[in-house]
Amino acid sequence: MLLLSALHGMLEIAASTLAQERLGTAGLVLLFGVGVGIRARHNGLAVTTAVLLVVLMAHA
After folding, report:
1. How many CB atoms lie within 10 A of CB 29?
2. Is the whole model's pTM more than 0.85, yes or no?
3. pLDDT given for residue 60 in this prediction
4. What DSSP assignment string belongs to 1-60?
5. d(Cα 51, Cα 29) in Å, to the nearest integer?
6. Any idea what the Cα angle at residue 34 is, between residues 27 and 17, rounded to 5°?
7. Of 26, 37, 41, 52, which sits with the fewest C-beta atoms within 10 Å of its C-beta?
8. Burial 31-55, CB ≥16 within 10 A → b, else e
9. Are the beta carbons of 45 and 29 closer than 8 angstroms?
10. Mind listing the pLDDT tens digit for each residue in 23-38?
């Protein structure tokens, strides 16, 4: 369980660093939106922000 938690934290840091390097503040806001959408169980918010993040990362 501790290993899973540590792996989850490392993935969060890696994703946020990559988003910040490529997209700046907008990437972090979109990544935050994905997290909020997933935790709040708002599938529309999570899917929309995830699609926007992927499209912007592809163009960056």
Report:
1. 14
2. no
3. 66
4. -HHHHHHHHHHHHHHHHHHHHHHTHHHHHHHHHHHHHHHTT-HHHHHHHHHHHHHHHHH-
5. 13
6. 40
7. 41
8. bebbeebeeeeeeeebeebbebbee
9. no
10. 777 877 887 888 888 8
